[in-house]
Amino acid sequence: MNSKPIQILPSILSARMGYLAEDCRHALEAGADGLHVDIMDGHFVPNLTMGPDILRAVRAELPEAYLSVHLMVMRPDLYAPRFLEAGADTVLIHVESPCDLAATLAGIRASGRRAGLTLNPETPVAALTGYESLLDEVLIMTVHPGFGGQAFLEAGVPKVAEVAEKLPAVDISVDGGINAETGARCVAAGANVLLAGSFLFRAPDMRDAIADMRWKVESARKVD
Length: 224
Ligand code: DX5
Ligand code: ZN
Known about the structure:
Helix content: 25-40%
Number of helices: 8
Strand order of the largest sheet: 1-8-7-6-5-4-3-2
Structural class: alpha/beta
Bound molecules: D-xylitol-5-phosphate, zinc ion
Strand content: 15-25%
Low-confidence stretches: none
CATH superfamily: Aldolase class I
Order of helices and strands: EHEHEHEHEEHEHEHH
Distance between the termini: 8 Å
CATH architecture: Alpha-Beta Barrel
Mean pLDDT: 97
Radius of gyration: 16 Å
């Protein structure tokens, strides 16, 4: 039985950038457990988003919020310290990033924050081998990273189950195309952290969307 708490974290990639503070506050008031912040460098993925100053601004507005930062960058070893300093609680780096992953994960933890490794859709779970003792979280991508609003890739579900079997104590997050239904399938397989952008930010009422998602994913876990 999986007893890790369910976390629903809206991805601010889908927030209105001109009203970022307002949209972040609204998401938390609507029942989100924190916020997911997608950092893209235009090299690791073909899109550019935010730098550490934006995270610092979000942190200044929301000193108590849980902030999960997803680094889709070529050199997370260079940028993780900048995002930690700007207020990240968790830093998720990609196993495909060409840098010293073990040292980067250890550095994140040495700052007292949580560290995680992310797997792209084509990357097998075996790529986590050797890093197990450095992980608080594993993120299974359920789209090819780079853009919000893509269709959920079902092949992520058995990978979630494989990670849950291999690393029962770590949080398992899923990212990309997550809604109440796809989220429920991931939670039934062992995920407990749901990262969702367009589904939550485009919902007519985010409070209803989060409540519905929470009820459906909790139910999926009970029948597991
Ligand atoms: C994709 C990002 C996701 C993105 C998800 O590269 O990592 O966090 O915001 O967006 P949706 O939920 O719209 O697929
Ligand atoms: Zn993300």
